């Protein structure tokens, strides 16, 4: 690998952009809708975050609503490259929210995935921060670097299978108003 070129490319791009982010994932519905139908996350936690944002940074209310409630694109993973000054300002904004959330969200009964709530919330908040400040962003794909070629196939296959499984489970959720849920209600509550 010609690694010498990467620091130069990064610094050139950080001259033009505030932050380099991983490509956004596109969901079928808004992040709020996706999370509310997920068995993996507790939607009440996001209501808590919304209240904390309103208390600490009320000028971010509209940005939070735009990103979380009215948007289906999301740059996750907390993977980014930025200048230190950007990181410092972002952390000064983020950590007061997370520290307060830690005191208000009871995770004692959470499963292995739900215990990551604050990490997942921070991914959403990063997108809120970027949107709120109207920052110029360069989106790049994530590459897995390995010495074994067969791992490329495995990683690609694993990502493909994850999408299939995610979509399969998404369609299994019963939503209020769905024809299936109406039929199940009739069957279970004959009148």
TrEMBL record:
Transmembrane helix found in the keyword field: yes
Keyword field: Membrane, Transmembrane, Transmembrane helix
InterPro entries the UniProt entry points to: DUF4422
Transmembrane segments annotated in the record for this chain: 113-131, 152-174
UniProt keyword RNA-binding present: no
Pfam families to which the protein is assigned, alphabetical: DUF4422
Protein name: Exopolysaccharide biosynthesis protein
Location of the DUF4422 domain: 10-133
Organism: Termititenax aidoneus
């Amino acid at each position: 690998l010609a690694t010498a070129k990467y620091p130069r490319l990064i610094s050139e791009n950080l001259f033009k952009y505030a932050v380099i982010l991983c490509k956004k994932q596109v969901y079928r519905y808004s992040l709020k809708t996706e999370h509310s139908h997920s068995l993996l996350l507790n939607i009440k936690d996001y209501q808590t975050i919304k209240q904390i944002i309103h208390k600490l940074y009320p000028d971010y209310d509209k940005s939070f609503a735009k990103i979380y409630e009215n948007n289906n694109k999301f740059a996750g993973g907390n993977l980014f490259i930025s200048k230190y000054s950007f990181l410092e300002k972002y952390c000064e904004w983020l950590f007061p929210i997370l520290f307060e959330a830690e005191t208000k969200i009871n995770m004692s009964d959470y499963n292995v995935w739900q215990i990551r709530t604050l990490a997942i919330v921070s991914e959403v908040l990063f997108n809120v921060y970027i949107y709120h400040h109207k920052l110029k962003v360069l989106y790049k794909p994530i590459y897995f670097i390995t010495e074994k070629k067969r791992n490329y196939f495995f990683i690609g296959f694993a990502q493909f299978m994850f999408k299939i499984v995610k979509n399969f489970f998404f369609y299994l959720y019963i939503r209020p108003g769905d024809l299936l849920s109406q039929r199940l209600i009739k069957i279970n509550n004959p009148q």
